[in-house]
């Protein structure tokens, strides 16, 4: 039943977001843009690889819940009704996303995984799926592990996942939406577009998935008034095909070990011998 629902949501997403982007486009962009076939491969194949990682996370978190978690905490969580569990699960889940996402940016070896997501140069709703399976799995460690370990109900966790699922499409969508006075509370498409910007000041900012107030709280917010990000992507060569993107972090790590130089998060890694890499993007940072 759940699989059926996911397939249904997958069919529904383009029906909502393609016309939405045409009506409220932030930038002029074609529907059939560059990299569309690679994104379709991510859409169809990534789920199987992520499923393995998520199953392991849930099994480990359930073990922690049953053998390590004090029974008083377990009782306190399970005593909460759904209407209280669901919002708490959403707040905890997004705090996990914030920190795992930040680690993916600031730890050089982790950046090699996350660079796959930031390789997208024409941002739209489908860019949400352009993520290495290890990246998705690591994000789920941050968000799902604490929820399952603390013993939140399946309904509360399901509510968090459904909201996060639709929010990911929306945050990447090529639409003009900034949320006005709520921009420092909720993650808008404008907020996440800045996260993908290749401009120097915007780098390693705006990590939250749902609540931008986490970036306000932890000092990583970048939302300049009256400006829009214009260029996206990273400043080092990246592959453009699905299988080459899957292999990218492994070749990059091998190259880092060879050079014994764990360089900064986004410094050019042009010396890396990564098969299938494209030429560097034409635009320069800053
Ligand atoms: Zn990121
Ligand atoms: Zn993104």
Radius of gyration: 19 Å
What is the 3D form?
Answer: globular
Portion in helices: 55-70%
- Poorly predicted runs of 5 or more residues: 267-286
Number of domains: 1
How far apart lie the N and C ends? 48 Å
Subcellular location: Membrane
InterPro entries: Fatty_acid_hydroxylase, Sterol_Desaturase_Related
Enzyme class: oxidoreductase
GO molecular function, one term: oxidoreductase activity
What is this structure, in a nutshell?
Residues 88-220 form the Fatty acid hydroxylase domain. The protein is mostly helical.
Kindly describe this structure.
The protein has 286 residues and is mostly helical. The protein has one domain. Helices cover 58% and strands 0% of the residues. The protein contains ten helices and no strands. The chain has helices at 2-23, 36-67, 71-79, 82-106, 108-118, 133-150, 154-172, 189-196, 213-217, 242-259. Helix 4 packs across helix 7. The protein is globular, with a radius of gyration of 19 Å. The chain starts with a helix and ends in a 27-residue tail after the last helix. Residues 267-286 have low confidence and may be disordered. Bound molecules: zinc ion (2 copies). One zinc ion binds next to helix 8. One zinc ion (ZN) is lined by residues 117, 172, 192, 196. It is found in: Membrane. It is an enzyme of class 1 (oxidoreductase). Residues 264-286 are annotated as: Disordered. This is Sterol desaturase family protein. It holds the Pfam family FA_hydroxylase.
């Amino acid at each position: 039943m759940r699989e059926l629902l996911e397939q249904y949501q997958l069919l529904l997403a383009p029906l909502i977001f393609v016309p939405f982007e045409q009506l409220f486009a932030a930038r002029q962009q074609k529907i059939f843009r560059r990299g569309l076939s690679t994104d379709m491969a991510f859409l169809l194949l990534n789920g199987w690889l992520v499923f393995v990682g998520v199953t392991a996370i849930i099994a480990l978190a359930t073990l922690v819940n049953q053998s390590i978690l004090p029974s008083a905490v377990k009782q306190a969580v399970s005593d909460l009704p759904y209407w209280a569990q669901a919002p708490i699960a959403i707040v905890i889940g997004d705090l996990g996303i914030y920190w795992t996402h930040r680690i993916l940016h600031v730890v050089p070896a982790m950046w090699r995984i996350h660079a796959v997501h930031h390789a997208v140069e024409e941002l739209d709703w489908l860019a949400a799926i352009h993520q290495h399976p290890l990246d998705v799995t690591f994000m789920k460690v941050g968000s799902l592990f604490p929820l399952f370990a603390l013993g939140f109900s399946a309904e509360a966790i399901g509510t968090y996942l459904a909201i996060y699922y639709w929010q990911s499409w929306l945050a990447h969508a090529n639409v003009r939406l900034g949320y006005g006075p709520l921009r420092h509370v909720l993650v808008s498409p404008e907020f996440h577009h800045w996260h993908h910007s290749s401009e120097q000041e915007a780098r390693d900012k705006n990590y939250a998935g749902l609540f931008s107030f986490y970036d306000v709280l932890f000092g990583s917010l970048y939302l300049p008034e009256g400006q829009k990000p214009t260029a996206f992507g990273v400043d080092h060569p990246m592959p453009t095909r699905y299988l080459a993107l899957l292999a990218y972090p492994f070749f990059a790590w091998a190259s880092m070990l060879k050079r014994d130089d764990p360089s900064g998060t986004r410094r050019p890694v042009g010396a890396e011998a990564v098969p299938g890499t494209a030429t560097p993007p034409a635009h320069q940072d800053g």
